[in-house]
Amino acid sequence: MVSYVRQYVSTCVVCQRSKPPRHAPYGLLNRPWGSVTLDFIEGLPESGDERYNSILVVVDWLTKYTVFAPCAKTTTAEQTAQLYLDKVFPFFGAPNSILSDRGSQFVSCFWRSFAVLLDGQATLSAAYHLQTDRQTERVNQVLEQYLRIYTGKHQSEWTLHLPLAQFAYNNTLHSTIGVSPLFATLGFHPKLFPSSTVAGVHDPRAAAFVQDRAKLVEACKQGIERAAASAAKYYNSGRKPLSLTVGDQVLLRTRNLTVDAPSKKLTDLLVGPFVISKRVGQRAYQLELPQTWRCHPVFHVSLLKPFRANRALRAYPQTIPDNSDLAARD
Questions:
Q1: Can you tell me the mean pLDDT for 296-314?
Q2: What's 29-167's CATH class?
Q3: What's this model's pTM, rounded to 2 decimal places?
Q4: Fewer CB atoms < 10 Å away: N or C end of the chain?
């Protein structure tokens, strides 16, 4: 009797659509700079010849390495894509997913612009994988504190201190991963000041230096692996893997969709079920959505929930009609 009740409750369609999730988020990290966060620090005094008044903050979820790029408060998604291409892409390549609190429309526009800049080589891997993360907020607080201390009365000169601020932050031990973001990324600790003595090009110790350097690089590679594993373990401790296959039925979260309903709060948290038609990358899936829905059909696994079918029901009517136009929410 107990097992029957549990089975009945777990397959309740209304409950699956309406109740908030209690499980850990789905999706695990698997490579540095695979998932990044984008945020902006605004309200700064104009600085430099370009009269910058904001900072684009890009954080790698795995290594915690952070890039600070001066910009304007009016920076658009297209301009953000160009900034990413100039400041991040040459060193770390393209990410798999973008996290931002600026809305799904901003991220979608960013991806399209990024693809154009790369001559169409970048593709939108997942739709609406967004969340406001406290990680970037902490980075912003640290940066603001640094600039506050070192600019003093000369607040309009904050752009001069930004490169050193980025180095100082990334070369400092990070409590989450146990090493500095620079070490987790590069495998060595960069020197703040050059050595007082430099060996000559004909120094007989050059060969020994090269050998020692090779050993150091190999040791650093192992250090990167350990640091990455440590970071992934910390991040994944609050998440859980989810294995889905083509043909499975899933529910889709509506938090990043515009739903034609009188009240968003009283609308189902999930809609569906929808059939998975394709797996995209490691953590995204393409769904068979109604053709009238104006949204990208590929979604990150964190926005999906496995649907438990109730065999007693032959059909599962949608709470949102197929003829309603769903679109990205600003």
A1: 75
A2: alpha beta
A3: 0.53
A4: N
Q: Which residues contact 128 (CB under 8 A, 6 or more apart)?
A: 104, 107, 256, 257, 295, 296, 299, 300, 303, 328
Q: How far is CA 232 from CA 27, 186, 267, 301, in A?
A: 11, 17, 35, 17
296 burial class (0-12, 13-18, 19+ CB within 10 angstroms)? middle
Question: Side chain identity at 288, as an amino acid letter?
Answer: E
Q: Which CATH architecture has domain 241-329?
A: Roll (2.30)
Decide if 184 contacts 239 (C-beta within 8 A): no
The amino acid present at 9, given as its one-letter code, is V
pLDDT digits (tens, 9 = 90+) for 88-128: 999 988 887 777 766 666 777 887 787 777 765 544 444 44
**Amino acid letter for position 166:** Q
Cα radius of gyration (the chain): 24
Dump strand ranges (E) for 42-94.
54-60, 66-71
Tell me what the pLDDT averaged over the chain comes to: 70
Alpha carbon distance 220, 108 (integer Å): 37
Is the pLDDT reported for residue 174 higher than 70?
A: yes
Where is pLDDT greater, at 312 or 72? 72
Burial of 148 (0-12, 13-18, 19+ CB in 10 A): exposed
